[in-house]
Amino acid sequence: MANAFHYSIGRKFIQAVSGAFLVIFLLMHATINFFSVIDSFTGKFGAAANDDVLFSSGDGLFKLGCDFMSTPVIDIMVPILALGFLVHICYGIYLTVYNVKSRGGWKRYEVASKAAADSWSARNMFVLGIVILGIIFFHLSHFWAKMQLPEMFGIGNFENNPYLLLTATFGKWWILLIYIIWFVAIFLHLSHGFWSMFQSVGWSNQTWMKRLKVIGICVAAIICLMFVAAAVNAFLQANGLIG
What we know:
Blueprint: H1 2-42, H2 61-68, H3 72-102, H4 106-110, H5 114-117, H6 120-123, H7 125-142, H8 148-153, H9 162-170, H10 173-200, H11 206-238
Helix pairs in contact: 1-2, 1-3, 1-10, 1-11, 7-10, 9-11, 10-11
């Protein structure tokens, strides 16, 4: 019984660590995307030198951020990120199936604990994960497949101007809507996953848990709002509504 308990804690710990890595990546990714919004206010939206040199003079903040994502350090981190993401998905599915079986079915799992009853997000983490995963492939086809994939593996045509990818992708209202649904799903998933991550590594103090739940909502909201702002800004730029 004790071995089973520690084994369960170990699985949750791996899920928490892989989740923490993804939170850091999302925060960095959202910040770089938000640079495009700042570029709109400074008049540098679309400013990208037509060369292969990283960090060219005169480039907008968003282009400089994308150049940072093309540095060797980030190239090394991509496989690590992919592995962490894969571990997070696999363990998320495994833990959900394990919990459902151990508690006698899905209905009993929904109300099996106070933590699961805290919020809609807590009760639907698996569903939110499926939504996030599904739209990720949609996202990769718009950006990663046209920037990192050609650059790293020589597959496809490389797009040197990330502003063009932004406007081409978010210029259509229905694509913008799909992405906003995705960002909301990420917010809901993170708002629960953030504090749950700390609980899994042993931070179960009630006082700190209340604080971590608030911090988690704030972190998830910041990430979501930066993503949404970048997408809406690109839509407005693409349709000539701002200049």
